Structure prediction request, 277 residues.
Amino acid sequence: MPLIQAYLIHHNDPDRRPQREAITTLLAQLDLAVIPVVEQPPLAPLPKGWLGRWALMRREWAKRSADFQQRRLREPHRALEWQLRQYWTQLQETLGLWRTPRTALQHPWRHTQVEAIVSGKHGRAWRQAQATGVDCALVFEDDVSCQPDSLARLAALVQAVPSLLQQQPALYLDLAGGYPPGQVLPLDQALPGGTAIADWWLPAVHTNTACAYLASGPLLQRWLRALDQQPALAELPIDHLINSASARQAPQAPSGHWREPPFRHGSFCGLARSWQQ
Prediction:
């Protein structure tokens, strides 16, 4: 059997303890120990003067650029339109930021920092997995919600991993979804025919929300290579980071998705309190 390691991204939020205990218990039934990724740096204050606006604008530009890059991948026939929309959106956001009172910038500044901190924790999990030499990593955030059939479906997936890796060493499976699939995934690009493992196989990595996923060792290696070559990617939200790193270093890596995934993203369905609230 391949070596699979599970990681749980959290910051000891007491409101999410039930979710942490549930996923830890479920994984223990599959003899999968969970490595918590908890430590995080303190939030930094908004830089003074125009530097604060510039720092926030730079992060928002990067996030918007990654968002539109994925839209161009989803709809290549509209690439020029999405490129022009990106420029227009970034111009509007820039003007809005420069007109916004400094006191109103504190919330978006905190928001972008937390996004980068969460992405940093995922990156640490990837590096730990690579150092251990795992074949696959299971990564969960602590708002993941277990369902009655989650154990059986994950057990079947673990059993299928050897054959999946033999067919495609660089592999991504989105285990919890979030947004309606048709809203964020190019389902028209799905490879012909679903399988017992996933309802849709896309010819590239497209995340939904990255609340829970399986990533193979070779794919983790390519994500880390992208981060090493372009450290600014680490400031992106984790879903944008995964998409951007994959587009740069693993454009042919397939991703699997479900109509009803094995787990649910609790923050999206009212089963867990979102950190953005």
In short: The first strand starts at residue 4 and ends at 9. DSSP finds nine helices and nine strands in the chain. The two ends are 41 Å apart (CA to CA).
